[in-house]
Specification:
Number of strands of chain B: 2
Helix content of chain A: over 70%
Distance between the termini of chain B: 50 Å
Radius of gyration of chain A: 26 Å
Oligomer: heterodimer
CATH class of the largest domain in chain A: Mainly Alpha
Largest interface: A-B, 105 and 124 residues
Number of domains of chain A: 2
Strand order of the largest sheet of chain A: 1-2
Strand content of chain A: under 5%
Helix content of chain B: over 70%
Strand content of chain B: under 5%
Number of helices of chain A: 11
Order of helices and strands of chain A: HHEEHHHHHHHHH
Distance between the termini of chain A: 57 Å
Number of strands of chain A: 2
Order of helices and strands of chain B: HHHHHHHHEEHHHHHH
Largest sheet of chain B: 2 strands, antiparallel
Structural class of chain B: mainly alpha
Structural class of chain A: mainly alpha
């Protein structure tokens, strides 16, 4: 679900950076308030753990496929939402820089889609309320699966919105959503199962490590781990079927809404403000025609552009070679003088 | 080679590249960070049909790859993650946008094809720019640049720690996976019965490691301040580099430079 830079427009990227930065600033304030000097080293090592854990393939029984661990819900169940969120940002930044997994400009979008939902919503709206009266294997499994499925659904929906508002794809909104949501439902389910398995293990080995678990709870569970997992899997499949049917019946939600509200699928604008805005847009949109009108001259302009690209590339490489030649010569002279 | 070993090797390669004594590596990290973000923002700002305009943006990676004596092949290898995603987003454009925009004789190109190619080029240029940054600047230096722009030290410190511990934990995971594979021959991935115990063990060991790390940091005088990279002065050449490249990127964004050059020859 990592978005590349090419998939976002600067305005969308900037907006998402502002939203993610606000959440990060709030988290930093909360982590500072805790005044726990151990927190930062733990966050660092846990970030590296998530990184390493994501490299492991988990075989999905009955299929040839494999799944990976979800970081957001796991980190917030261990470190809390604020420290978990900051750790996830660190993981996403390092992934982006070292492995080109997600872009530097799209980092704000990726933080929002993968870290914000997983850590804030997953921890505050799902994990904490469910662990309020104590933890049990079934509750941990349910919280992990619901958390991963829900946050991944929200994340993938955000990816769709961000890509469409960036004007990157010609794919209609309904079709895009119908492709994204069911895929991420399956991914979320597998990630939820893996997260559940790990957290249940931690609960049994070192329950004090889990965040937000009330001590008054007992380990006797109303749901068994297996029953919870099966119930949630069946529910998820039913919801997936329902969602995809709805998606195919109403292929374009945005156009449908416009039709209902305005009586037309496209809004027409007139008035001085719109004319002025149009003028500004024409003035600032660089090379408005750019030779793509289908005429011979357009083809000629484009051809000039391609030839120009070749010439500029050749000149660049030439300059670099000359520069390097001179540098090597001067380095050679220096080493000769030093001898 | 396993996926984990490949990742470790990739990190080591990037570290070696960033440690080289090249003039690009000696440029102030803040300048490189700013230029990379600026370049990426300008690249993605090109409208979907401005293919020839976008082609001009090749000048930045082309120049720096040549000057920094970096391998384009290595950089293109990183596209294996990004390009399929970009292709998925752009592959439908030729089907939905069929309006013919260019005719070269009997050869017609639709708007969808142009917007798809533009999207792919954007993907390639942005990945190359990020590669240039990380191949010429260490993570410590990037963290130092982040501190210069007042990004809180809580955040920067944990990024440094994540980076330092990635290799350690990757090696540990690799050993665990190797031990598991030797006991479960012919099995692809980790069996469902071992999901919890496998990752849980690694997690508990990581937690214990974090405790030990904190204690050793305290013994070395840690008081909440973690030094990231040596301080680097902002020199005249850094300013010149920043100004020249900002101007070049803007000129290529605002004017059809390639068409002017091409019209001299056609």
């Amino acid at each position: 679900m990592h978005m590349a830079d090419a998939l976002v427009a600067p305005a969308v990227a900037g907006t998402m950076y502002v939203c993610s930065a606000a959440a990060a600033a709030y988290s930093i304030k909360k982590v500072r308030k805790e005044e726990d000097p151990k927190k930062i080293p733990v966050m660092g090592v846990m970030g590296a753990f998530v990184f390493a854990a994501q490299m492991i393939n988990f075989t999905i029984p009955g299929t040839g496929a494999s799944g990976h661990l979800s970081g957001g819900v796991l980190l917030s169940a261990l470190l809390g939402p604020y420290a978990g969120f900051l750790t996830m940002i660190g993981v996403l930044l390092v992934q982006c820089l070292l492995f080109a997994d997600g872009g530097l400009l799209a980092l704000g979008c990726n933080i929002w889609n993968m870290a914000f939902y997983g850590c804030f919503l997953g921890a505050l709206l799902i994990w904490r309320p469910m662990m309020k009266k104590g933890a049990s294997r079934g509750k941990i499994a349910a919280a992990s699966i619901i958390g991963c499925v829900l946050t991944l659904q929200l994340g993938s929906f955000s990816v769709t919105l961000e890509t469409l508002t960036s004007g990157i794809t010609e794919l209609p909104f309904g079709a895009f959503v119908a492709v994204m949501q069911p895929i991420h439902l399956a991914i979320g389910l597998v990630e939820g199962l893996i997260t559940a398995a790990v957290l249940v293990f931690v609960y049994e080995a070192r329950p004090e490590l889990l965040w937000g678990v009330s001590e008054e709870g007992t380990s006797t569970s109303r749901f068994s781990f297996r029953r919870t997992v099966i119930t949630l899997a069946v529910l998820a499949l039913l919801v997936a079927g329902g969602l995809s049917l709805a998606a195919s019946a109403f292929p374009d939600g945005l156009e449908w809404s416009m039709q209902q509200v305005a009586g037309t699928e496209e809004l027409e604008t007139d008035g001085a403000v719109y004319d002025k805005a149009d003028e500004i847009q024409s003035a600032t949109s660089l090379l408005p025609d750019y030779g793509f009108s289908g005429s011979e001259s357009a083809a000629g302009t484009s051809f000039s552009g391609v030839v120009g690209a070749g010439v500029v590339a050749a000149v660049c490489v030439g300059i670099c070679w000359i520069f390097r030649l001179f540098r090597k010569k001067s380095e050679g002279k220096e080493s000769f003088l030093q001898r | 080679m396993s996926k984990i070993s490949r990742a470790i090797r990739e990190i080591q390669t990037m570290e070696e590249l960033a440690q080289r004594d090249q003039w690009v590596n000696r440029i102030h990290p803040l300048v490189k960070l700013f230029l990379t973000v600026f370049y990426i923002a300008v690249v993605v700002s090109f409208p979907k049909y401005q293919l020839t305009g976008l082609l001009g943006m090749m000048i930045y990676p082309l120049f720096l790859f040549e000057m920094g004596e970096l391998s384009v092949r290595e950089a293109l290898h990183r596209l294996r993650i990004v390009l399929p995603l970009v292709c998925v987003a752009g592959i439908f454009n030729p089907f939905f946008d069929r309006e013919i925009l260019i005719c070269w004789g009997s050869f017609a190109i639709s708007g969808g094809v142009i917007s798809m190619v533009t999207l792919m080029l954007k993907g390639i240029f942005t990945v190359l720019a990020t590669y240039l940054l990380i191949a010429s600047t260490s993570i410590e230096s990037i963290c130092y640049a982040m501190r210069l722009i007042h990004i809180p030290k809580v955040f920067v410190t944990q990024i440094l720690l994540i980076y330092r511990y990635i290799t350690v934990l990757l090696k540990e995971t690799d050993r665990m996976m190797q031990a598991y594979a030797l006991r479960a021959p012919g099995q692809k991935g980790v069996h469902v019965k071992a999901w919890g115990s496998m990752m849980g063990q690694l997690l508990l060991r990581s937690m214990d490691r974090a405790e030990e790390l904190y204690e050793s940091m305290c013994l070395r005088g840690y008081h909440g301040e973690f030094y990231c990279g040596k301080s680097v002065g902002f020199l005249g050449k850094d300013l010149a580099f920043l100004l020249i490249w900002t101007a070049v990127i803007l000129i290529f964004r605002l004017f059809p430079v390639l068409e002017y050059v091409g019209s001299l020859f056609v």
